[in-house]
Amino acid sequence: MKKKSFLFCLVLSSFVFLTPVYAKDNGTNIRYASKIENSGWTDSVINGAPSGTAGKALKLEALKVNLENQEYSGNIEYRSQLQKYGWESTWKKNGEITGTNEGLRLEAIQIRLTG
């Protein structure tokens, strides 16, 4: 399979919306959850469903993303721009947490598919 790499940059405020991604109806899903100020982790959702809060002015503090039911090799990798720190230097992958436990807001996120 031809190697593909995609880079997405989403500006985030108090919630996250991811664009649905489907790969030839093979059942591959993108599953993600958000850590929200004063609320902790949300339940995980898939394929473009909203994750976080709307209209509550709460910070998005962390995010974890993974692919499930993969038919092809590769990973989903992501990193965040963090309040006070800037861009994380390392890419996270497959359910690792991007963000901090310091109550800082995620200001942007980059996501790429590799494989």
Short note summarizing the structure:
By secondary structure, the chain is an all-beta fold. 0% of the residues lie in helices and 46% in strands.
Question: Any chance you could write out the topology, listing elements then pairs?
Answer:
Blueprint: E1 8-11, E2 15-16, E3 29-36, E4 40-41, E5 45-46, E6 51-52, E7 60-68, E8 75-82, E9 86-87, E10 92-93, E11 97-99, E12 106-114
Antiparallel strand pairs: 1-12, 2-6, 3-4, 3-5, 3-7, 7-11, 8-9, 8-10, 8-12
Structural class: mainly beta
Q: What is the number of helical segments per DSSP (H or I, 4+ residues)?
A: 0
Beta strand count: 12
Return residue spans where pLDDT drops below 50 for at least 5 consecutive residues.
Answer: 1-24
State the end-to-end distance: 9 Å
What's the mean pLDDT score? 82
SSE pattern: EEEEEEEEEEEE
Report the principal-axis shape. Answer: globular
Strand residue content: over 45%
Largest sheet: 5 strands, antiparallel
Mind telling me the C-alpha Rg?
14 Å
Instruction: Summarize the amount of helix as a percent range.
Output: under 10%
